[in-house]
Amino acid sequence: MQRQKILVLYTANSALDSPVIGWSVYDGTGQTRPMAGDQDEPPYRTGVDALKDGWRLIQAAQLLPHARGAEFDLAYLKYEFFFEQLVEVKP
Amino acid sequence: MTHLPLLNAQQMAQFVARGFLRLDGVVPEALNGQFLQEMGEIAPPVPGRGLMRTYGEMLAKAGVPEVAAGTPLDQAYEDGSALAKLVQLPVVAGAIRSLVGEDPIFDHHFLHVTFPPAYHEASGGENVSQHTHQDSTIDPRTAFDIQIMYYPHAVTREMGGTRFVPGTHLRRVSEVALGRYQNIRGQQHMVCEPGTLLFIHSGIWHGGGINLSDRTRTMFKIRINPNPRSSRTQVRQFDVSTLVPQNQQRPIFYVKGPLPPSVEQTLMTPEPWFEQDTGRLEFLNRIRLWRYLTDDPTYDADYWLTRVENLAEV
């Protein structure tokens, strides 16, 4: 039986080999309980380092044009990459 | 002319750039003691008893008044109470005056208590940190509210502390929509001595840390608005005599070494989490906030706004 682990990396620009500035982990195996504020240093220096460690990229943020009149508005982190690992667990 | 100790230009620039002002150990020990005494005892954990029930009973018993939103701050607390004394401390009153101006308005307050593992075990709930969020709701104003976070007792790292991300306050987000972000480079945790105050811009991203110690953690928060009926609201309320006239722009990009400390240097210092492109937009937004607070619509730092406001085609 397999369960999914999710790693979300936020990078400094849209390149997967740019530095990681934010990160989250969600563990579907239940073996760990990651949560907000649990780690002050990123698990990987870049997104590519996560690939090298066996994480599979499953989604990347789109690059969208800037709405006229709102070019300087900032909201959510822009460069978001979702990775997964499938982990074997005992039934 | 006020006799309050106002924030200077450098402190204001720090607040504009990073969205917080931390004052360590400024509340006297006797006042911390009075506050904790007025808050009262917190009932010990009882097996099978829900944490929300414990919390509700604690709030009902605590010596914190119910205050109508929109009350003038100077009428919010009974004279002689710990909270009245807190907002009247010169260092506190001076910071409030500098940041939100004359006759500020009480918005709301809350007694935040974070419980150690024994309470969660007894109630059957999960002990987990709070998702990162921005308080209230989407706020498109240039004007801002402040929140004072008061730590009446020492907070260790094991106790969690308030987590916040410096420099996030100018982002227009919708409360806990950003809860997906667990960790952001440069995040800070409020580990502090008793009597520490954290003044935050109302837009700062923050959340309560998980308490893994063996005692409860108490933090009291007061949200304060500028008064729209005051003649000068938030504008030029800090010690403007400390502003250094800006005769020309600094050299940019090609510089032969570090530039000296200045308001510009503070406004142009990035946070570790800044994206490479939007980090520049953060600079623009900081300059706009500085223009507002100094009432100087032509102010610029490192040419960012001058360049995009040069409408040569017109």
Could you list some keywords that capture this structure?
heterodimer; A: 91 residues; mainly beta; four-stranded antiparallel sheet; 1 helix; 7% helix; elongated; B: 314 residues; alpha+beta; Jelly Rolls; 2 domains; five-stranded antiparallel sheet; three-stranded antiparallel sheet; 9 strands; 27% helix
What topology emerges from the helices and strands here?
The complex is a heterodimer of chains A (91) and B (314).
Chain A: E1 2-11, E2 20-27, H1 47-52, E3 56-60, E4 80-88
Antiparallel strand pairs in A: 1-2, 1-4, 3-4
Chain B: H1 9-18, E1 20-23, H2 29-39, H3 51-61, H4 82-88, H5 90-100, E2 105-114, H6 117-123, E3 146-151, E4 162-165, E5 183-184, E6 188-189, E7 196-201, E8 205-208, E9 217-225, H7 263-267, H8 278-294, H9 304-308
Helix pairs in contact in B: 2-4
- What sort of overall outline of chain B do the alpha carbons produce when their principal axes are compared? globular
Adjacency order of strands in the biggest sheet of chain B: 1-7-3-9-2
Strand order of the largest sheet of chain A: 2-1-4-3
Mean pLDDT of chain B: 96
Structural category of chain A: mainly beta
Silhouette of chain A: elongated
Total beta-strand segments of chain B: 9
Helicity range of chain A: under 10%
Radius of gyration of chain B: 21 Å
Order of helices and strands of chain B: HEHHHHEHEEEEEEEHHH
Beta percentage of chain B is: 5-15%
CATH architecture assignment of the largest domain in chain B: Sandwich
Describe this structure in words.
- The complex is a heterodimer of chains A (91) and B (314).
- With 91 residues, chain A is mostly beta strands.
- Chain A contains 1 helix and 4 strands; from the N terminus they run E-E-H-E-E.
- Chain A has one domain (2-88).
- Chain A has one helix at 47-52, and strands spanning 2-11, 20-27, 56-60, 80-88.
- A 4-stranded antiparallel sheet of chain A has the order 2-1-4-3.
- The mean pLDDT of chain A is 97.
- Chain B has 2 domains: 9-225, Jelly Rolls, CATH 2.60.120; 240-308, no CATH class.
- Chain B is 27% helix and 15% strand.
- Chain B contains 9 helices and 9 strands.
- The chains are: A mainly beta (91), B alpha+beta (314).
- At the A-B interface, strand 1 and strand 2 of A face strand 5 and helix 8 of B.
- Strand 2 of chain A pairs antiparallel with strand 5 of chain B, so a sheet runs across the interface.
